[in-house]
TrEMBL record:
Pfam family, one: Sulfate_transp
Protein name: Sulfate transporter
Species this protein is from: Melopsittacus undulatus
Keywords: Cell membrane, Glycoprotein, Membrane, Phosphoprotein, Transmembrane, Transmembrane helix, Transport
InterPro entries: S04_transporter_CS (IPR018045), SLC26A/SulP_dom (IPR011547), SLC26A/SulP_fam (IPR001902), STAS_dom (IPR002645), STAS_dom_sf (IPR036513)
């Protein structure tokens, strides 16, 4: 019926339908039949007729518009700003007590119980008195509760950052003229922090001596914490969080593993009860082990036995917790049990008095009065705070996004930067040092039923209870026990070596980055190791673009797809056409690589061909002059007239992200050289950025910009049609 009704509409409708069908066919295929003798540049090729968008407004207009938008103040904008800057105002009114409260309390209490011994242990790693680690964990939990957007991460003390803080603290203590021994070993209490003592720095007057070595150590730590927090807030304000992109997962993992060796080395002397100076700077790991072996005959047997017993308890208990974590509602707080048992044994056994064991000393209750950072120290620690700020932000944001994706909610990376920044700025006035998210405690927090940021507040309340009541009871706790706790918690980072075979199979480049960063962080220093890792990973990116994959392509039968001949079988090639794909940006670094690979893959270097033809032509002329009869040497003529195996090169530019001036000039040279040996070069699948660069670089002759192709298939059809109908060669200059 439909066919009959169409036929009754007359020839006019049929003609319209035929024209429409032909137009649709031509929009897909760039070659149609045309009478011989017609111009191949018009009529049979449909170019990329793309109408560009209107140009954007001038920079001045955009700045003025953005300024007006930013500076305008309405009640709705103020409300949105306050709610976004203080996320607690958004989620707390919607808090579901029956659904969330029990899980938040359980996870908060468990993390708090685990955090107390770690806060005391990591304080020694940062070169501080134990009380300051408790302060840091307490304030970090409260501030992140107010500003943070992640429901699951645990913000507090992180071992690698503590190590980096401790290295700067030791350096500044020595620079100020104190003895070289770490502040945590001075035996002075925090309550004497503002009293004059007999341990005076040699380069300061007595009027400037307002605190002892312990106080000066936390002053350095707090000042560095303040400036690191300022950096993080500034990065959030200017939205430059992209710097964390340069810290890839493999780089961060290698850095943490390398720093773990340094942490283990710094704690080894406590295991043996040795009183040796703490070293920092380049090669500190090797120097420390040399000092340990030189003084190993001074090992305190009591501390050594205590360390062995703690290892025998903690390591199996940690393994059992990991193995049965799916069956346990909460991990067994074995660290707290060990600390309580060791403290009781040390107190009643009088290990300090009898055997000379080193103990934590008096940990006061309550809080010290707030105190601003030492502004005179800012020039000395400003540079050291940069890697701390970047690492703290990168770890916090990566963990936030990981757990948000797992549980189906979103976090704001910019707000996370503000949150971790304020977790450093505000506590720096209350004798705290740098904090960030920590993976181990975050995993415990998530696995124990955490639902919102309320669990962080519960953790802070647990630490507050310790600060107000329980802290003095840890007076007799041996430092070797804290060292064992620190080393056992390095298990996750050190176990990364077991993942190397799998990592090698997935990506050899990432594995090499991991190894280089790990080795540099361990053997040189943590800061230099991080810098080496960043530089090496960037060099790897450059090398990969400098020597990219550049295969020849073949046609997949019964489709319009072209794929690599070296990767797939049963691909077909079109006679006289070479399809080449360059899988990298074309810029000044790899321009020579582009030309050399193209010449190698096609088997023809046009420069050599031109030179050979010129040489053969000159030889032919000389032979003509010698041969008075006009006979020509057949070998020379055969060489000159020897045809190439192809007449067209199609360059697939789908993987070329951008061109610079050197890249445009290289394409011009390639097209010109091949045109001179009667080979045309066509470009296909150029992205808008590449097309714009080509136009601005005057790549095309006037009226030739329509010779860009949407696909490789179109370019091949065009080349076949041009060769079949006119035999001419069209090449862009």
């Amino acid at each position: 019926m439909e066919e009959r009704s169409l036929s009754q509409q007359g020839p006019l409708l049929q003609g319209v339908l035929e024209m429409t069908a032909m137009a649709e066919f031509n929009s897909i295929h760039s070659v149609t039949e045309m009478p011989e003798g017609d111009n191949p540049k018009s009529g049979f090729h449909h170019g990329m007729f793309l109408e560009p968008q209107e140009k954007k407004k001038s920079m001045k207009a955009l700045v003025v518009k953005q300024a007006k938008k930013t500076c305008s103040c309405t009640p709705a904008k103020v409300k949105d700003f306050v709610l976004s800057f203080f996320p607690v105002l958004q989620w707390l009114p919607k808090y579901k007590l029956r659904e969330y409260l029990l899980g938040d309390i359980m996870s908060g209490v468990i993390v708090g119980v685990l955090l107390v011994p770690q806060s005391i242990a990591y304080s020694l790693l940062a070169g501080q008195e134990p009380i300051y680690g408790l302060y840091t964990s307490f304030f970090a939990g409260i501030i992140y509760f107010i500003f943070g957007t992640s429901r699951h991460i645990s913000v507090g003390i992180f071992g690698v950052i503590c190590l980096m803080v401790g290295q700067v603290v030791d350096r500044e203590i020595q620079r100020a003229g104190y003895d070289a021994e770490p502040a945590a070993l001075s035996g002075l209490t925090a309550t004497a922090a503002y009293a004059n003592t007999t341990s005076f720095p040699v380069n300061r007057t007595s009027k400037e001596l307002l605190c002892d070595k312990s106080c000066y150590a936390i002053t350095v730590g707090a000042t560095m914490t303040f400036i690191a927090g300022v950096y993080q807030v500034a990065m959030g304000f200017f939205q430059v969080g992209f710097v964390s992109v340069y810290l890839s997962d493999s780089l961060l993992s290698g850095f943490v593993t390398g720093a773990s060796f340094t942490i283990l080395t710094s704690q080894a002397k406590y295991l043996l009860g040795l009183n040796i100076p703490r070293t920092s700077g380049i090669g500190s790991l090797i120097i420390t082990w040399i000092n340990i072996f030189r003084n190993i005959h001074k090992t305190n047997i009591c501390d050594l036995i205590t360390s062995i017993l703690c290892f025998l308890v903690l390591i199996p208990a940690k393994e059992l917790n990991d193995r049965f974590k799916s069956k346990l509602k909460a991990p067994v707080p074995v660290e707290l049990v060990v600390i309580v048992a060791a403290t009781l044994a040390s107190h009643f056994g009088k290990l300090r008095e009898t055997y000379g064991s080193s103990v934590a000393g008096r940990i006061p209750t309550g809080f010290l009065p707030p105190r601003p950072p030492d502004w005179n120290l800012l020039p000395h620690v400003a540079l050291d705070a940069i890697p701390l700020a970047i690492i703290g932000f990168a770890i916090t944001v990566s963990l936030s996004e990981m757990f948000a994706k797992k549980h189906g909610y979103s976090v704001k990376a910019n707000q996370e930067m503000y949150a971790i920044g304020f977790c450093n700025i505000i506590p720096s006035f209350f004798h705290c040092f740098i904090t960030s998210a920590a993976l181990a405690k975050t995993l415990v927090k998530e696995s124990t039923g955490c639902s919102t940021q309320m669990s962080g507040m519960v953790t802070s309340l647990v630490i507050l209870l310790v600060l107000l009541v329980i802290a003095p009871l840890f007076y007799s706790l041996q430092k070797c026990v804290l060292a064992v706790i620190t080393i056992v918690n390095l298990k996750g980072a050190l176990q990364k070596f077991r993942d190397l075979p799998k990592m090698w199979r997935l990506s050899r480049v990432d594995t090499v980055i991991w190894l280089v960063t790990m080795a540099a962080s361990a053997l040189i220093s943590t800061e230099i190791g991080l810098l080496v890792g960043v530089c090496f990973s960037m060099l790897c990116v450059i090398f990969r673009t400098q020597r990219p994959e550049a295969p020849l392509l073949g046609w997949v039968a019964e489709s319009e797809t072209y794929e690599s001949l070296s990767a797939y079988k049963n691909l077909q090639t079109k006679p006289g056409i070479v399809v080449f794909r360059f899988e990298a940006p074309l810029y000044y670094i790899n321009k020579e690589c582009f030309k050399s690979i193209l010449y190698k893959q096609t088997g023809v270097n046009p420069v050599w061909v031109k030179a050979a033809k010129k040489k053969a032509a000159k030889r032919m002329l000389r032979e003509k002059e010698v041969d008075s009869g006009g006979n020509q040497t057949s070998t020379s003529m055969d060489f000159v007239s020897e045809p190439l195996g192809f007449h067209t090169i199609v360059i697939d530019c789908c993987a070329v992200q951008f061109l610079d001036t050197a890249g445009i000039r290289t394409l011009k040279e390639v097209c010109k050289d091949y045109r001179e040996i009667e080979v045309q070069v066509l470009l296909a699948q150029c992205n808008p950025s590449v097309r714009s660069s080509l136009i601005r670089g005057e790549f095309f002759k006037e009226g030739e910009d329509h010779l860009l192709f949407h696909s490789v298939h179109q370019a091949v059809d065009y080349a076949l049609g041009a060769q079949r109908h006119s035999g001419t060669s069209v090449c862009k200059n």
